[in-house]
Amino acid sequence: MAKNLENNVYTVLFASGMVIIVGALLAFVSSALSDKVSENRRIEKQLNILYAMGVNDNDETSVTFVSKNVVGSEFSKYITKQLVITGTEAVEDNNAYLIDIKKEAEEAKDPNYKRRLPMFIGEKDGVKLFIVPVRGNGLWDAIWGYVALDEQMVVQGVYFDHKGETPGLGSNIKERFFMDDFKGEHILDGDTFKGINAVKGNSDPKNLNKTDFEVDAIAGATITGTGLSAMLKKDLAMYIPYLKTLKK
Predict the structure, then answer these.
(1) Which of 65, 61, 119, 51 is nearest to 90 (CA)?
(2) Got the DSSP string for 14-41?
(3) How do residues 104-140 score in pLDDT, each as one tens digit?
(4) Rounded distance between C-alpha atoms, residue 83 and residue 10, angstroms
(5) From CA 84, how far away is CA 116, in angstroms rounded?
(6) How does strand 117-124 pair with strand 79-86?
(7) β-strands 214-216, 89-92: how paired?
(8) CA distance 91 to 22
(9) Whole-structure pTM value
């Protein structure tokens, strides 16, 4: 007798079987690609960190990372130490760059959790640099980046990126004309932390004043700029207690 394909039991068994098969295939693919995904994340983070400290292949206007073929050796060359910071205490950890700061922020909602803050210490052209990650919210989704500071807490370079900001507007946070404005900016007024604000209608559009704690905002990207300013103030502030112990 032919099977009744409209039978509810048959339908449930068929659907269950397909779910199991598809789930098994997805699990296999995920497992097979996990090493590749981890490697790509490592490369991306190392490229971003190096870019923030000025190790890149830029010409006068472009944003160009060093080649992926040499990123590992360049990271080892320029990054002399990796730290994990809690408060004013720091321990060396060669895998600090693997810390997920988004996950750390979630864990830190528990008042008993001690948040881990990764920091990267490097040297370029004789200048000692402290590179810290930042993460926040733009208009549509997450924004993030790295900020390189010298021993006087002056910005020596940044790298910013985003997940879904508006093309030609908020997405311009990762363009040279915006990121380069942060070079030389101060984040402390004496011993008081100020951060850096992206300000619409900034009275210093050429960004000649490096002690006003402002850069010119991107036209048409007010919310992205506000989110970026909040990100810098929120995340850099967490590092200040430790950084002040290093300030000459």
Answers:
(1) 119
(2) HHHHHHHHHHHHHHHHHHHHHHHHHHHH
(3) 999 999 999 989 999 999 999 999 999 999 999 999 9
(4) 58
(5) 6
(6) antiparallel
(7) unpaired
(8) 44
(9) 0.83
